[in-house]
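Quick question, first post here. What does this chain look like in 3D?
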Amino acid sequence: MENDQGAVKWVRSEIYFGTSIPSGGEVSEEQFSSFLEDPVTKAFPGGMTAFDAYGQMEKADGSIVRQETRVVLLVHDGNQQSEQAIADIIGAYRSRFGNPQVMHLRTETEPQFWGD
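> Answer (accepted):
Ran it through. Tokens below.
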């Protein structure tokens, strides 16, 4: 995606993956590591960052749900292929682990890269 000056517009996508499986249990670290290999790394081989977090939300009945959460941070060009890959990743996670909660935050960003 390009801006008016022809420069690439970058997007920061944060995907929050709830680890509580609705039918019971939790997504293990080993299961999540396997998930990162396929489909996440296959879709974004240029890099990503993953980290553990804690999440909570209020349900419609007023109760608070607390759960371990894993976050994947991607910086990408925001093109249709990247956006579809993110939708596919979210769908794969929900399908693989019984429809746990997932949230995707998308923000335009201006990264600076150093290194090789």
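Strands lie at 10-18, 49-58, 64-76, 102-109.
Residues 19-109 form one domain.
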